[in-house]
Design goal:
311 residues; alpha/beta; Rossmann fold; five-stranded parallel beta sheet; four-stranded parallel beta sheet; 40% helix; 14% strand; globular; binds phosphoric acid mono(formamide)ester; pyrimidine biosynthesis; aspartate carbamoyltransferase activity; EC 2.1.3.2; Aspartate carbamoyltransferase
Length: 311
């Protein structure tokens, strides 16, 4: 059986193209499973997983939980707001106490870039990064690649523009790594103040004009402005942002082509994307959410297989 090259999923930059292909092919099989009347398989009935979320989440937390339950794993979920972290317990103490309950895998979201990597070096469990600050969100990039492949046949050769707050976006960075590894071309578009200075060093070009970016691309991935990470001095005001970078049906209708519109959520309707675009024919936003369950099943299953092989 093919296996991943890694024992943890810490970021796309730590895996390779074969790993991505294996995850997406495995997700194909799980997508068939979750579309059956009986949506569960017994594969991981001997595995226990803790989901520990130190930042808010709807899609990622729930779809990891559902993916684990569809695989018959034992699951416990934890939000820092209701935990003893509030009493000053450290991350390593928290996780080691959870692992003392015979937990095999930890899925973690944290506000600090590198938190998942740090944890992988200090505790004895397989670690999955569910988003670490502005660093990486690998399962979002994998489900985005899965969705592009599903809608356009393949990722190789496709032109993807990521629009918005690139500077604070872990989704952008993970997508850039994943898309390039699979042979796609990537541009970014947004206010210059929200584009990292190192963007060209990643082999990505900056297009400041939204219409030109959309005329070039096959897929537009629209990102939310991350006000919670924003220093206000970086940024034009919301009205100016929407005028320059907001995607409307009028803009889509004036293009000479059809494009796929993606968004990782949560959406700020009327800011980066209007409701008629978010809910319209070009949008694959809910397909992304649906595919997230199959892709996360694949990630959990493949990492758990490595745990079992080590026993
Ligand atoms: N896309 C994403 O990470 O959404 P949540 O923050 O709701 O998990």
């Amino acid at each position: 059986m093919k296996e991943l090259s890694v024992n943890h999923l810490l970021g796309i930059k730590y895996i390779n193209k074969n790993d991505i292909n294996l995850i997406l092919e495995t997700a194909d099989q799980f997508k068939e499973v979750i579309n059956r009347p009986i949506k569960k398989v017994p594969s991981l009935s001997d595995i226990t997983i803790a989901n520990i979320f130190f930042e808010n989440s709807t899609r990622t937390k729930l779809s990891f939980e559902l993916a684990q339950k569809r695989l018959s794993a034992d699951v416990m979920s934890f939000s820092s707001a209701q935990s003893s972290v509030k009493k000053g317990e450290t991350l390593i103490d928290t996780v080691n106490n959870i692992l003392a309950m015979k937990v095999d895998m930890v899925v973690m979201r944290h506000s600090s870039p590198g938190a998942a990597h740090f944890l992988s070096q200090h505790v004895n469990a397989s670690i999955v990064n569910a988003g670490d600050g502005a660093h990486e969100h690998p399962t979002q990039a994998l489900l985005d690649s899965y969705t592009i492949r599903e809608k356009l046949g393949e990722v190789a050769g496709k032109k993807i523009v990521i629009v918005g707050d690139i500077l604070h976006s872990r989704v952008a960075l993970s997508n850039i790594f994943a898309l390039q590894m699979q042979g796609a071309e990537v541009k970014v578009c947004g206010p210059k103040t929200l584009i990292p200075k190192y963007i060209n060093s990643l082999g990505v070009t900056y297009e400041p004009n939204l219409i030109k970016a959309l005329e070039w691309c096959d897929v537009a991935n629209m990102l939310r402005v991350q006000n919670e990470r924003l220093d206000v001095s970086y940024f034009p005001n919301t009205r100016e942002y929407t005028q320059q970078f907001g995607l409307t049906n009028e803009i889509l209708n004036n293009l000479n082509k059809e494009i796929v519109v993606m968004h990782p959520g949560p959406i700020n309707r009327g800011v980066e994307i209007t409701s008629d675009v978010a809910d319209g024919n070009h949008s694959v936003i809910l397909d992304q959410v649906e595919n997230g369950v199959a892709v996360r099943m694949a990630v959990i299953y493949l990492l758990a297989s490595k745990i079992k092989n080590r026993l």
